[in-house]
Design brief:
Largest sheet: 9 strands, mixed
CATH class: Alpha Beta
Number of helices: 8
Mean pLDDT: 93
Number of domains: 1
Number of strands: 11
Low-confidence stretches: none
CATH topology: Rossmann fold
Distance between the termini: 29 Å
CATH architecture: 3-Layer(aba) Sandwich
CATH superfamily: Vaccinia Virus protein VP39
Helix content: 25-40%
Order of helices and strands: EEHEHEHEHEHHEHEEEEH
Radius of gyration: 17 Å
Strand content: 25-35%
Structural class: alpha/beta
């Protein structure tokens, strides 16, 4: 029997997929994504659908599609949608990001989001478990392939939002610009004041004009080591 828990008191109910459990990165990305005017969104590599649920909880105007390679994870994502009664507001497609052109029409979405694997192959040790290795590293889809898929799916003027590691920012910006996705917003995430950034929240616009807005850093803890006010807001504490 599937075990569901609330993402916050009174919030969406969610069941975890062990190889890719819900983490801070997905929660922060869901808060970072601009939803004004967004009607059709897609999550590339949705796993069990946590990011879909978090976005659907923010607005009733959005319809989400989740694209997931793992049949096991895709089935759980569908189950999570049913548990919340959101089958009419979202769907899950079991398929390969690298085959996006055969699954969808070009420019089908206003919004593309992704919390992809952070590490390229050959960058270090990967878990021996194949599912966990695919969740951590670019086993099934490279960063360049992800960005190309996002560019194909995103309508002109639409947005592509992802969370990644700061050390790959130059590679991300180059890949986005090459595909016609102009980097427009950047917000770095730091554990505490004075700490080096550990995550980067990035927004690009399809066909956007040059010009990057670097927002103030998001601090997860205050100077006393307690959860910051913004962290508490995002987690609804």
């Amino acid at each position: 029997m599937t075990e569901f828990t609330e993402l916050w008191p009174g919030g969406p109910r969610f069941a975890q997929w062990a190889p890719f459990p819900l983490g801070t990165d997905s929660v922060l990305l869901a808060d970072f994504v601009p939803l004004a005017g967004m009607k059709r969104g897609i999550d590339l590599g949705c796993a069990s659908g946590a990011l879909e649920l978090l976005l659907l909880a923010r607005t009733e105007d959005l319809h989400m599609t989740g694209l997931e390679l793992s049949e096991e994870a895709a089935a759980l994502a569908e189950e999570n949608l049913r548990e919340n009664g959101w089958e009419g507001r979202a769907r899950v497609v079991c398929g390969d990001i690298r085959q996006t052109r055969s699954l969808f029409r070009a420019g089908s979405f206003d919004l593309v989001v992704s919390n992809p694997p952070f590490y390229p192959l050959g960058s270090g040790a990967h878990p021996s478990d194949a599912k966990r290795a695919a969740a951590r590293g670019e086993v099934n889809c490279t960063l360049a392939q992800l960005v190309a898929a996002a560019a194909f799916l995103c309508r002109t003027g639409g947005r592509f939002c992802l969370v990644h590691k700061p050390e790959r920012l130059s590679e991300i910006f180059v890949a986005m610009s090459a595909q016609g996705l102009e980097p427009k917003r950047l917000r770095l995430v730091c554990a505490r004041p004075g700490a080096a950034p550990s995550l980067a929240l990035i927004e690009g616009r399809r066909g956007g004009a040059p010009g990057l807005c670097v927002e103030r850093a998001l601090l997860l803890e205050d100077e006393n080591g307690a959860p910051s006010e913004e962290f508490r807001r995002i987690y609804r504490r």
